TrEMBL record, chain A:
GO cellular component terms attached to this protein's record: mitochondrial inner membrane
Top-rank lineage group of the source organism: Eukaryota
Name the UniProt record assigns to this protein: APOP1 protein
InterPro entries recorded: COA8
Organism: Sapayoa aenigma
Family: Belongs to the COA8 family.
TrEMBL record, chain B:
EC number: 2.5.1.141
Entry's transmembrane regions: 241-260, 363-382, 394-411
Upper lineage: Eukaryota, Metazoa, Chordata, Craniata, Vertebrata
Protein name, entry field: Protoheme IX farnesyltransferase, mitochondrial
GO molecular function: protoheme IX farnesyltransferase activity
Gene that specifies this protein: Cox10
Length: 147, 439
């Protein structure tokens, strides 16, 4: 993002986490409230990134392992004569999906709680910041009018 | 039309293009193309999001075909992402996305690929997080899942139309608007809650909050500015019962269904209730009371949700599993199919109850029997085969089955005058006829 921009910038989805990274703009006269908001957002972003990157990688890895073990049980190779990767049918994959979901249930529950809390906090802070900015602007307007 | 066929021929296994195919077939069924476009929009919207969205009504917007196409493009882009992402060295000029889409509309296959690549290239750039006012209507439309809410408004209108009272236009308009606003609010809050999950699912990763086109604060403010006037409108402009139902439905959708999606498969049943409430609201808006007819109409929509959703969720098991959503199709696949079949059959039963409650004449169960049997047949095929093609067939059937059923119901509606006559003949036994509001 250009150096003179006064806004945050959001990028393309991350390869592992599918989340879009945000580069936060730090204004020169950042109030403590605004700093709290920015830090909360950065922390949430880092947390989300860590969780999803790890989770998605685990998913793909376990999926590969599952396919490999199933193919081996059937006596097939990972790649057939044309070099294409062998895949299992949707019904066979369904077993894996069910298993994966139940194994990660606890992890998701914890993440949900965490995410909801963060989301509310960030939004609430955003509200406070918006209010503070609006009051500041009104005061500035009043000062200008008086002069 | 030609464009749509091209989509199919690219070999992209793409649900909307099958749907469009169905769309053309359905034209023969004397359903207006407009209405079908409407459904297509609804479906494309559903595709774009997490399937389990149930929405509340919204007044019907005039969505330009452009917007539709844009949605369609986003869908295609979604599918294309799975295949290798094209390199950034594209020889196309840096035209705006909209121009690309305009070209695509009249162009052939290559044109469509151009648009897709342009969009995915566009998507891979860094964007400034500034709210652009000219984009705002589109952003808010996507935030409120306007197409889906529009479809739900039509179910509420069906509820209103089926109520055995003279048609009151102002009331109808207020009810539709109120439920539409309530729906926008509910959908916005839902998207607000689900940002990281939506990012990870192919269907939903182009939502405004995911792309940073809108701040969460703005989303919440929008939801409040739709929801509060919406419910107020329903409570004060229509009647308190409808307002209460609207508020309850928002609560059910945002605070029960949305979190439950990640906790237990029971979310599907809660979601079915969310979908069943709008026609009940339409009915109570017209009559002011919650009587058997309202519940029957709600029951029909409740049952319909299951074949519709279960069939659709069958193809999304991978995304659900990775995203951590607890859906029957992933955890209890047998139950998923059984429930879908069960409710297809229930629709036959419910249709037969309609004349008993004096909502329709006896012609309704007879005329609706073919379509109910057909969806039950597809439900049975889905139950037995449990594969992608049967799930898709069932899903697409559900899309035209519901509007058709409601249409037939409306045409078979027991006319108010008929009931009045009966009332005169049979005395007090048809009390409802006597209470009819005179225009």
């Amino acid at each position: 993002p250009p150096a003179q921009s006064q806004n945050d910038w959001i990028g393309p989805p991350d390869k592992h986490s599918n989340l879009r990274p945000v580069i936060f703009y730090v204004p020169p006269e950042e109030s403590p409230l605004e700093r709290r908001l920015r830090e909360a957002r950065q922390e949430a972003q880092a947390c989300n990134q860590r969780f999803w990157a790890r989770h998605n990688q685990a998913f793909h890895q376990e999926k590969e392992e599952f396919i490999y073990s199933r193919l081996k049980a059937k006596g097939l190779q990972m790649r057939d004569e044309t070099g294409q990767k062998a895949t299992l049918s949707a019904e066979e994959m369904a077993d894996f999906y069910k298993d994966f979901l139940s194994r990660n249930f606890r992890k998701h529950m914890q993440y949900n709680r965490d995410w909801y809390k963060r989301n509310f906090t960030i939004t609430f802070l955003m509200g406070q910041v918006a209010l503070a900015r609006a009051l500041r602007w009104l005061r500035w307007k009043k000062k200008n009018v008086e002069h | 039309g030609l464009f749509m066929w091209r989509l199919k021929s690219t070999g992209v296994r793409h649900i909307p293009c099958q749907f469009l195919h169905l769309c053309r077939a359905a034209n023969d069924r004397l359903i207006t193309f407009q209405y079908f476009n409407f459904l297509k929009r609804m479906y494309v919207t559903q595709c774009n999001k997490d399937l389990s969205q149930r929405a509340k009504p919204k007044s019907d917007p005039v969505v330009s075909p452009f917007h539709e196409l844009q949605q369609l493009e986003q869908e295609k882009k979604v599918i294309h992402r799975i295949s290798p992402i094209p390199s950034a060295h594209q020889p196309w000029p840096e035209t705006s996305r909209r121009n690309e889409l305009r070209e695509v509309k009249s162009a052939a296959e290559t044109g469509s690929v151009t648009a897709v690549r342009a969009e995915s290239r566009d998507d891979r750039q860094w964007k400034e997080m500034k709210l652009r006012l000219d984009e705002l209507p589109g952003i808010l439309a996507r935030l409120s899942k306007i197409k889906l809410t529009a479809l739900v408004v039509s179910t509420a209108s069906a509820g209103f139309a089926m109520a055995p009272v003279p048609f009151d236009l102002p009331c109808f308009l207020l009810a539709s608007l109120g439920t539409g606003l309530a729906s926008c609010a509910a959908n916005s809050i839902n998207q607000f809650f689900e940002v990281p999950f939506d990012s990870n699912m192919n269907r939903t990763k182009n939502r405004p909050l995911v792309r940073g086109q809108l701040s969460p604060l703005l989303a919440v403010c929008f939801a409040a500015s739709c929801g509060i006037p919406g419910i107020a409108l329903l409570t004060l402009g229509v009647n308190p019962l409808t307002g209460a139902l609207g508020a309850f439905n928002i609560f059910l959708y945002t605070c029960c269904y949305t979190p439950m999606k990640r906790m237990s498969i029971a979310n599907t049943w809660v979601g079915a209730v969310v979908g069943a409430i709008p026609p009940v609201m339409g009915w109570t808006a017209a009559t002011g009371t919650l009587d058997a007819g309202a519940l029957l109409l709600g029951g029909i929509l409740y049952s319909w949700q299951f074949p519709h959703f279960n069939a659709l969720s069958w193809g999304l098991r991978e995304d659900y599993s990775r995203g951590g959503y607890c859906m029957m199709s992933v955890t209890h696949p047998g139950l998923c199919r059984r429930v879908a079949l069960r409710h297809c059959l229930a629709l036959i039963g419910l249709s037969a109850v309609a004349p008993v409650l004096d909502i329709t004449t006896w012609t309704f169960p007879i005329i609706s029997l073919p379509i109910n049997l057909y969806i039950s047949y597809l439900g049975f095929r889905f139950y037995r085969d449990a594969d992608r093609s049967s799930s898709r067939k069932l899903f697409f059937c559900s899309l035209w089955h519901l509007p058709m059923l409601l249409l037939v119901m409306f045409t078979c509606k027991k006319s108010v005058l008929e009931k009045e006559d009966k009332g005169d003949l049979l005395g007090e036994s048809h009390g409802r006829a006597v209470e009819i509001r005179l225009p």
